[in-house]
Specification:
With about 300 residues, the protein is mainly alpha-helical. The protein folds into 3 domains: about 120 residues, no CATH class; about 80 residues, Death Domain, Fas, CATH 1.10.533; about 80 residues. About 40% of the residues are buried.
């Protein structure tokens, strides 16, 4: 089986060079955020029953055109979200939707959201969400699956997640936190999503993660969160461009020393990543790189330009 290409600090006891080497290994990750208004096949009578995934709420917040934001504000008020304002941007909308989901019964999410959107003349956005739920071509990348496994860290939680994904399967292996167990879990995840018929793997995985107690990951894994491998790539580039590195870290309100090494930059950014688990993490880093006149580093790290990722 292939080796794990990223490494979470919660999993490793090896020395710094071994850990950072693993994190820097071959992950060719191209992040592409599909516009919820494009390329969604029309599926007759597509509907969502019961629980809404965080993935779908993220799509609602970030893919709703700016011209419809006032209508979305009304939809949030229809849901009883009193903190909603007309000046809200996508991150605030998503956070409010997450709070609403956390505080309401799962079996009524879809019905309540459908009613709220239709009453605000956003019935098309509801239908887009329903069609998105049926899209089996929106796969979770291997790099993302690897990062999810590493970020969960707890073998028991990984086991519980697999049981939810493979409901009724009795021959799942027991996991003990070893590298070979992580690799086996990754293969099981990839096998699972290839067997999905009529359901979006991102939505299904988001729902299963939430039910397994992995709420932070459930809310963000699909939204372009930075992997440790990507942070390591950036750290290596920053190590060769100390002035831009200092400016980037200062923009992120991070303390910097007199001399920054690759490893020091890496651990500073790792701490920042773990404390900023928002769906807007990638854009925060992009803004910091831009202010530091180091925007060209973005495409080298992500494999795509900002314009391709944040359409």
């Amino acid at each position: 089986m292939p080796s794990v290409t990223g490494t979470s600090r919660a999993f490793t006891t090896a020395d710094t060079k071994e850990r950072t080497g693993n994190r820097a290994a071959k992950i060719d990750r191209t992040i592409a955020k599909n516009d919820g208004q494009e390329s969604i096949p029309m599926i007759e009578k597509a509907q969502i029953d019961g629980d809404m995934s965080f993935c779908e709420l993220w799509s609602l917040a970030y893919d709703t055109p700016s011209s419809d934001m006032k209508k979305l504000h009304q939809a949030l008020l229809n849901l009883g979200i009193k903190d909603a304002t007309e000046e809200m941007r996508a991150p605030e909308v998503y956070n409010l939707l997450c709070k609403w989901k956390d505080e309401h019964r799962r079996d009524k999410h879809a019905h309540e959201l459908q009613s709220a959107l239709q009453s605000a003349n956003l019935g098309t956005r509801w239908q887009n969400l329903c069609e998105q739920r049926k899209r089996t071509d929106e796969k979770v990348s291997r790099a993302t699956v690897e990062q999810i496994i590493l970020d969960i860290a707890d073998p028991q939680k990984i086991q519980d997640l697999l049981r939810k994904l493979y409901a009724g399967r009795a021959d799942l292996p027991r996991l003990h936190g070893k590298i070979k167990d992580q690799n086996e879990a990754i293969e099981l995840f990839m096998e699972w999503q290839c067997s999905r018929f009529g359901e979006n793997p991102n939505a299904a995985l988001s729902l299963a993660l939430a039910k397994s107690g992995c709420l932070d990951i459930s809310k963000n894994f699909f939204a372009g969160m930075l992997s440790f491998a990507e942070i390591w790539k950036l750290s290596r580039m920053m190590g060769e461009n100390e002035r831009e590195a200092s400016a980037t870290l200062e923009t992120l309100s991070l303390e910097v020393g007199d001399r920054l090494t690759e490893e020091e930059i890496y651990y500073i950014l790792c701490d920042w990543k773990e404390k900023n688990t928002t769906a807007n993490q990638g854009k925060l880093l992009l803004d910091a790189l831009t202010k530091a006149n180091f925007r060209e580093a973005w495409k080298d790290i992500m494999g795509a330009s900002p314009e391709e990722i944040y359409k």
